[in-house]
Each structure stands twice: as C-alpha cells, then as structure tokens.
Amino acid sequence: MNPPSRGLFEIADTPDAPADSALTVWQRRLLSRLAIELPDRTGNLSEAIGLVIREVTDVLNWSAAHARYDMAGRSGTDWHVRATEGASLSKLANLQAALSRGPVAGWQEGNGKGPGCRLDPLKSLPGRPVALLEFFAPAAPLPDGSARPSEIGDAIELIGVQLGLIASRQRLREAVRQAADHTRHLTTELDSSHEQLARVKAESRLYDESSGLPGRTILDDRIRQAVLRRHRSPRDLFVVSVAEIDGLGRLSDRIGEQVAQDVLVAAARRLTGHTRPSDTVAIDEPGRFVVVVEGIRTVTEAQAVADRLLKELVRPYPAKHKEVRLDARIGIVMGGPAYDEPGTLLADAR
User: Fold this and answer.
1) Across the strands, what pairs with 214?
2) What global pTM score does this model have?
3) What end-to-end distance do the CA atoms of the chain give, in Å?
4) Could you give the C-alpha distances from 319 to 110, 208, 249, 256, in angstroms and in order?
5) Is the distance from CB of 271 to CB of 198 less than 8 angstroms?
6) 164-196 per-position pLDDT tens digit
7) Which neighbouring-strand residues pair with 81?
8) CB atoms within 10 A of CB 183
C-alpha cells in the first residue's frame, strides 16, 4: 500500500505484513496508548521518534525500524532492531551503512528474502515532511499485493499525527525562545545605551561645556584629595587661587556673546598652559577660575604662582580683528592645617 502522509511526517512500512495478521486486543491497546500519551511523555522530536520506532516495532513484532529527521537545522537518524531478530538480521552493520548512504538506499539479507529498505529524500521546507519512519516486517508482501489491515495503518498514521504535533510545539518553543533571547539582547543593549547616555550626561555636568574645564564637583574632590595628602605630609602645602575676569558681561553686551565666550575659552587655555599637569584648573562660574597647586612650601612660592596666573589673564585677547583688554583679580589661600573643607578655602581665597 502507499505510505500514508500526514502533517509533517511520512510513514513507510516495508514490506506489508500478511492480511491475516490482525491486531490483537493487547496490540491495539498499546498502540492507542502510545498515540494518546506520546505528547505527554516527551516534547522533543528526536526522543519521540525513538520511542515510536522502538515501541511500534516491539508491539507489532516487526523486525526493525529506521528514522531520519531534519528540522530547523537539527538532523539525525535512529534505528531499532528487536532482540529476537538477531539471527535474521545478523548483518546489522550492512543495514546501518545502507541507511547512512541516503537519500536513496537499499539493503537485502544475503538470501535475498529478508526485509527490504526504501529510503526517500527528506524535505524540511515549510509544510513539507521533516522526518521519515520506515518499519521492516518479517514477511514479504502477499503475491496478490493485498494490503495489511487498515487498523494498523490507521494506528501508525495517528502516531505520525502526534509526532507532527510534537514537532510543531518544539518549533514553536524554539521560535519563542529565539524571540525571548532577541528581546533580552535588545533589552541589554538598550539598558547599556541608557547607562552610557546617563554617564555621558553626568560627565557633561561635571565639566564646563565651553572651556572643557572641571566644574565645582570635581574641584571639590581635588581639594579634598589635596587636604588628605597634606595630612600625610604636613610640610607640603597647597595653594588655592581664585581668579576672576572683570567685564565679561559688558563685553558680551558691547561686542557680542560669542566674543565673550571666546575670551573665556582663551583665558582657560592660558591658565592650563601655565600650570603643571598635576595642578587643577577648574571653573567655578562664568569668569571665575580656580587653580589648585600642590607641593608649595612657602608663601613666596604661592605669591609667585598667583602673579604668573594674573599676568596671563590680563594680557590682551584677540577678538574680531582687534584686541580686547580686561581687568582680572586673583586671591590665594594656603591650604594649611586650619582648612579641611573646600568651601572654606574657596571663600577665603576670593
């Protein structure tokens, strides 16, 4: 008879059993139980196929069964031979080799009267079979070609439908898992982007947008670090200088805001260019700079630092093909034992 085809599976039984081999009550019950309970016993296609070829072969007293499957890139083969068929299927290595050659292979026992094998190509396209099951009966087909009792074919066909259900569920679970993995990946990337954006925003608030100098938060931290180092080495003091440029507001009203901004940036560059990399040049507010210089031992050294910075700030600034002159003032305070808080130091340095 023609192999039944249902859903995702093609079931082939080769050759047909004799017409008088009707199912017993026991066989009918076991096949029905297998068909009903199969989806509950496993949700994995390869495991389900293994159960089917073993139990159907044993229940129907057939010689052997072979299966090949290919679904979503996962392929494999499985085959089963009843223990009582060891004598008639003694050349199992030949059978296995024939089955592995696919997509079309054939095998016969040495006497030419043993089970035959027909292996059709598997197709894994949507809606096409993803597995092929073949069962090997111990007897050759009847000469007149009469079919096996339909209840056997119906039982195996029902099992094939259940296998198709398992394959569909497995494919759905795989799709859901992939979608969940993709969602988790996107969520992780989104969270990372949000964290990076928040970090960039936080860092942008720590630095002045125009001059690029550290703001008050970083300045306070640098002063606290200088205080801690002074505690460890009392002889090494530090100087906090507060320098203010006068007239930036008037310059903005008279020439333009952009010119005032350019002067502010130029003043920041002058201060950073005349201090050491270890010193801190920060901006407290527009027009007010704070310079922290460590390693100072005497007041004379501190005054020299202040004079050098003030000289740079009062030099003319080029603006719109002419020079702009502005006044500046600077105050200094030595970071001695009396100072522990940045706010106190800054207030006294103004």
Assistant:
1) 207
2) 0.45
3) 105
4) 105, 22, 15, 10
5) no
6) 888 888 888 888 888 888 888 888 888 777 777
7) 64
8) 10
142 φ, ψ (degrees, to nearest 5):
-65, 145
Within its chain, how far is the Cα of 45 from the centroid?
27
Q: Hey, what are 348's tokens?
A: 């006294």
Residue pair 316/325 in contact by the 8 Å Cβ criterion: yes
Residues 6+ apart with CB under 8 A from 133: 9, 10, 11, 12, 49, 52, 53, 65, 66, 67, 160
Compute CA 233 distance to the chain's CA centroid, rounded to the nearest angstrom. Answer: 50
Distance between CA 350 and CA 333 in Å, rounded?
Answer: 9
296: β partners: 237
Give all strands of the β-sheet with 5-6 in edge-to-edge order: 5-6, 9-14, 131-136, 64-71, 74-81
Q: Give tens-digit pLDDT for 219-272.
A: 888 888 988 888 888 777 888 999 988 888 788 778 888 888 888 888 989 998
Give the rounded distance of the alpha carbon of 285 from its chain centre. Answer: 44
Determine contact, residues 118/13, Cβ cutoff 8 Å.
no
Which of 73-82, 202-211, 219-228, 313-322 bottoms out in mean pLDDT, i.e. has the lowest? 202-211
Sign of the dihedral defined by the CA atoms of residues 246, 252, 255, 260, in that order: positive
Q: Which of 278, 223, 286 is nearest to 251 (CA)?
A: 286
